[in-house]
Write a structure and sequence with these properties.
The structure is a single chain. The longest helix is centred in the N-terminal third of the chain and has 24 residues. The radius of gyration is 16 Å and the shape is globular. α6 packs antiparallel against α7 and α9 packs antiparallel against α10. It is mainly α and 197 residues long. It has one domain. It has 11 helices and no strands.
Length: 197
């Protein structure tokens, strides 16, 4: 492998992941997303603060940057293990955006965007599990924790084992970024989708 090329791809992936679509969508409406709702830049806060269509645009944008990052890696012929690292770098870019002083969101939509191309069957299964959990509980965070929590198991069952490390890292990062949500879920104070302050 050309190490320099791989490093450049990682840098491009991080910058792609750093694009804060939630902030951009909110600004078109004259709103500073950091100052409304939970202050998070992701689609759940956009939904609470701006409504479903801006939230949908945010989800699509955040997913697309994950998909695009892995597509770039694949175009340059990276093996699955390295493709996974490129996808993870895009997620890290979303979580620690270079455009927001290395602050950011929780990376759920970007993770799904990575999986759409990196492990399509597992990605679809992850999305279905997330959707089912959210429909029954109305907790977006719980949907993310469960669906991405069992991602490594689904990779083991349905995909290439060389993708397992990337799956474990995505799961670990998801839980780290949701630590406050986990505390609120345990206390019963986590807000449901549609619930306002």
């Amino acid at each position: 492998m050309d190490v320099i090329k791989f490093i450049v791809i990682l840098i491009v992936s991080f910058i792609l992941g750093s694009i804060p679509f939630g902030i951009i969508v909110a600004k078109t409406k004259g709103i500073d997303l950091n100052k409304v709702g939970s202050g998070n830049i992701g689609a759940t806060n956009v939904l609470r603060s701006l409504g479903k269509w801006p939230a949908l645009l945010t989800v699509l944008g955040d997913m697309l940057k994950g998909t695009a990052a892995v597509a770039i890696g694949r175009y340059f012929g990276l093996e699955p293990f390295y493709e996974g690292l490129v996808g993870l770098t895009a997620i890290l870019g979303h979580n620690f955006s270079v455009f927001l002083g290395f602050r950011g969101g929780k990376g759920v939509a970007t993770s799904l965007g990575v999986l759409v191309i990196y492990a399509p069957l597992t990605g679809l299964l992850t999305l279905v599990i997330w959707f089912i959990v959210v429909i029954f509980t109305r907790y977006s965070s719980l949907g993310a924790l469960i669906s991405l929590g069992i991602l490594p198991i689904n990779i083991m069952l349905f995909d290439d084992k060389r993708k397992l490390l990337a799956a474990i890292l995505i799961t670990t990062l998801t839980f780290i970024r949701h630590k406050d949500n986990i505390r609120r879920l345990m206390r019963g104070t986590e807000r449901r989708i549609g619930q306002r302050e």
